[in-house]
Amino acid sequence: MNEHTPSFQRPFDDALKGLGTDPIPAGVYYDPDWYRLEVEAIFRRTWLNVGHVCELPEPGSFFRCELEFANASLIVARGRDGAIRAFHNVCTHRGTQLVGAARGKAATFSCPYHRWTFGNDGQLLSAPDFERFYIDDKASCNLAEASVDVCAGLIFVNLDRRPRQCLREFLGPMGEMIETLPVSRASAWDEYVYEIDANWKVTFDNFQENYHLRFIHKRTNGAPPLETTENPYNYPMGFELFGPHRMNTSPGGSVLDDPPKPLLLQLLGRMAAQFAEEGLTGGAHDRDYFIFFPNLYVFGNPSMHFTHAVLPLSAERSRGVFRFYWNGEPSGARAHLARELALAFAREIHTEDGDVLMKGQKGIGSGALDHFHFQSQEVMCRHLYHSVDRMVRDYLSEKGGAR
Ligand code: FES
Ligand SMILES: [Fe+2]
Questions:
Q1: pTM of the full structure
Q2: Which residue ranges of the chain lie beneath pLDDT 50?
Q3: Which residue, by CA, sits nearest to atom 3 of ligand 1?
Q4: What span, in angstroms and rounded, lies between the C-alpha atoms of 29 and 381?
Q5: Which residue's C-alpha comes closest to atom 4 of ligand 1?
Q6: Which ligand sits closest to the CA of 129?
Q7: Closest-lying ligand to the alpha carbon of 114?
Q8: 48-66 pLDDT, tens per residue?
Q9: At the fourth CATH level, which superfamily is domain 48-162?
Q10: pLDDT single digits (tens) 279-334
């Protein structure tokens, strides 16, 4: 057994040990040149979750999605044929953005400049004075597409028109596992969005280690005294790697167990009962915390089922989107309250984290450290670092360059 693996936890396997124990180079968490490489090597050519099929309930439903790291704006739309497509929000005449609304329903998208009009399947339908152009093939003026696919109801886009892997291949076995979670059956959602002055990996890492819980979330999560349980710090029961993705298993036990918990945690227990009534419990994987490369968490815990995507905005700024997925409208006051509480809890936890994340970025970004350190219980953060590093290096060797 790894000497740093607590007795309640599955011993680290060879894949985890293979990540090593070296200090981590600090530059990749703030250096703008490295950030640009990450955008090219990863974010411009990988699958990113941008929404859920319940946002596109009928033909013509659409939402706009901004991917600032690529200066891209996409329209994700369900066509008349029921298919979901993703288009660049860019008129093929002279590039004007077509859609300003965040979401809606439309049979066509008309450019505000010269009124070229496109169907919700991306086809150019009409263009005033089209015969005066020098274009033989009208279809060549259809909207530029991005790749799009769905897993567990979650819509993923890939800016690469010809992705190296299809979505299922990319998600691997964890893709099948999340099909069992309530998110795959959801028909409504609530969200909590934040922006923060922290590199996307700094933001993301905060949600894949439990080392900080006892210091930062004492008020919301409680801090049972050491002698009451063999796992006082809520460390995961085990970690597992699936290629660039990873998962951990949350500690068992009821949120209503003794010793008495802080008020918010007690309420969380009441929420769990409500969500069970609504069929929102996670089943076989309801203790598993799925962490998809590069930037998505999916969690199906009975009291806290959510997705959380972290998008890069710049080398030192990121945006997080927490999504809570539900079955239909709340059935009554109790269901309504449970949903509000879930959102309030996420916001509260995140507010507790925000300050140290920004302080962390300021410290790392000062350049004072060449390296920093991850302990054995921060092994998921170490795996993200390794996965990013490998993909950037693969990209550089594909391009024939070397860093
Ligand atoms: S730029 Fe869109 S119609 Fe001219
Ligand atoms: Fe936290």
A1: 0.94
A2: 1, 224-227, 254-256, 402-403
A3: 114
A4: 12
A5: 114
A6: 1
A7: 1
A8: 999 999 999 999 999 999 9
A9: Rieske [2Fe-2S] iron-sulphur domain (2.102.10.10)
A10: 777 678 888 999 999 999 999 877 678 999 999 999 999 999 999 999 888 888 88
Tokens in use for 378? 């921060």
Pick the CATH number of 1-46+173-403 from 3.30.565.10, 3.40.50.720, 3.90.380.10, 3.60.130.10: 3.90.380.10
| Sequence ranges of the domains in the chain | 1-46+173-403, 48-162
DSSP E strands: which ranges in 15-144?
A: 24-25, 48-52, 61-67, 72-78, 84-88, 103-105, 108-110, 117-119, 124-126
- Indicate the top mutation candidate among 97, 110, 111, 135 to test ligand 1's pocket, ranked by most ligand atoms within 8 A of CB: 111
CA of 115 to the centre of ligand 1 (A): 6
Of all ligands present, the nearest one to the C-alpha of 355 is 2
Number of residues in the chain: 403
**CA-proximal residue: ligand 1, atom 1 (nearest):** 94
